[in-house]
Amino acid sequence: MRKLDRLPLSKDAQSRLESRTKQIREAASDHEDDEQRFLVQKKEAQRLWAQENTVAFLEIEMVLKRMAPDEGRCMYCQYNEGSAIDHFWPLAVFPVRAYDWHNYLWSCSVCNSNYKGDRFPRDRNGYPLLLDPTVDEPRDHLYPAPSTGQVRPRTCKGAKSIRTLGLNRGMLCKDRKAAWDTAQKVVELYARYCAEGNGDGAGACKSDLQRHPLSSGLRDLLGILKTPGAKHFIGPRCLAALRDHPEIEQWVQPAGQEAASQPTLAVDARNATR
Ligand SMILES: [Zn+2]
User: Fold this and answer.
1) Within this chain, do residues 17 and 114 fall inside the same structural domain, yes or no?
2) Structurally, how many domains does the chain consist of?
3) For 228-243, how does the pLDDT look when each residue is reduced to its tens digit (9 = 90+)?
4) Could you name the domain of life of the organism this protein comes from (predicted)?
5) What is the mean pLDDT of the segment spanning 62-73?
6) Which of 26, 46, 108, 269 sits a CA distance of 20 to 30 A from 118?
7) Are residues 113 and 21 in the same domain?
């Protein structure tokens, strides 16, 4: 998971959301009992959401995809293609936030349906114990374990997020491990091409490292590079290449500015000589 910037919505879309929220609140305005009011709001929010098919939502999905890693991947796991809006504060538990732009994330069906669902751990003060990548800096709560492809928690919020979202499920760990290993080899190859004066080869390496999934592997590499234990996780050739080529650090781009197409590995890093 990585930090993402929330982009603004048009006034029309924002006003559509506000009118829906008003509708949900007004549906329960006659009820003074808290539980009854909640049940009516929930029913109304579920009814509206089930039939939601407006132009405003085409725009909302488009903006969410632009905010997402690689223009459309899941904001939680970062590897699967996103397919639907996730209510960070679940609709069934917090119906008045069903139409809150700041409550929308773009999620894959596995993270959304198989893991998070209506689960929403909170601390004793009611604050979420779940990472929102548009609010939290995930690196403050999670760190990569390159040898296994797992992510490890730094905080209680990180630990709850790993558990609730299934961030260490098998396929994700395999993908992360592959991205980590291949990114190292492509970094080494970049340094070799530079030394040989092969500009095209070096350019192809740069392009590959800026695309999914190697961009995630590179991000992890750079995160570990400045830690005291870097030499235990990063191979010596890759370590030397990263230190000799500080320009590589500039290649990590914010979401929304990555190459949108699939990687076209101009070099087969698996065959690269070490
Ligand atoms: Zn996902």
Assistant:
1) yes
2) 2
3) 888 888 999 999 999 9
4) Bacteria
5) 93
6) 26
7) yes
Q: Measured in angstroms, how far is the CA atom of residue 69 from the centroid of ligand 1? A: 11
Q: Are 111 and 24 members of one domain?
A: yes
Question: Which pair of structure tokens corresponds to residue 248?
Answer: 């590589």
The whole-number pLDDT of residue 260 equals 41
Whether residue 21 is found in the same domain as residue 107: yes
Report CA(92)–ligand 1 centroid distance (Å).
20
Expressed in angstroms and rounded, the spacing between residue 88 Cα and the centre of ligand 1 is: 13
How far does the centroid of ligand 1 lie from the alpha carbon of residue 233, in Å?
Answer: 26
Q: To 10 degrees, what angle do helices 170-196 and 214-225 make?
A: 80
Query: How many angstroms separate the alpha carbon of residue 111 from the centre of ligand 1?
Result: 4
Q: Does the structure show a pLDDT above 60 at 261?
A: no
Domain end residue (candidates: 118, 138, 158): 118
- CA of 215 from ligand 1 middle (Å) equals 17
Neighbours of ion ligand 1 (CB under 5 A): 74, 76-77, 80, 108, 111
Burial 146-175 (b: 16+ CB within 10 A, else e): beebbbebeeebbbbbbbbbbbbeeebbeb
Domain end, chosen from 118, 141, 157, is at 118
Distance 78 CA to ligand 1 centre (A): 6
Look up tokens 């919020």; give the residue.
Answer: 157
Q: Residue 158: inside a domain, yes or no?
A: no
Report CA(199)–ligand 1 centroid distance (Å). 36
In tens, the pLDDT along 78-107 reads 989 999 999 999 999 999 999 999 999 999
Residue 79 lies in a domain: yes
Is 160 within the bounds of a domain? no
172 alpha carbon – ligand 1 mean position (Å): 9
Q: Which helix (H) or strand (E) holds 157?
A: helix 156-165
How far apart are the CA of 112 and the centre of ligand 1, in A? 7
Domain interval for residue 75: 11-118
Whether residues 19 and 108 share a domain: the answer is: yes
Q: Looking at residue 143, what DSSP letter applies?
A: E
Give residue 229's pLDDT. Answer: 84
Q: How many CB atoms lie within 10 A of CB 7?
A: 14
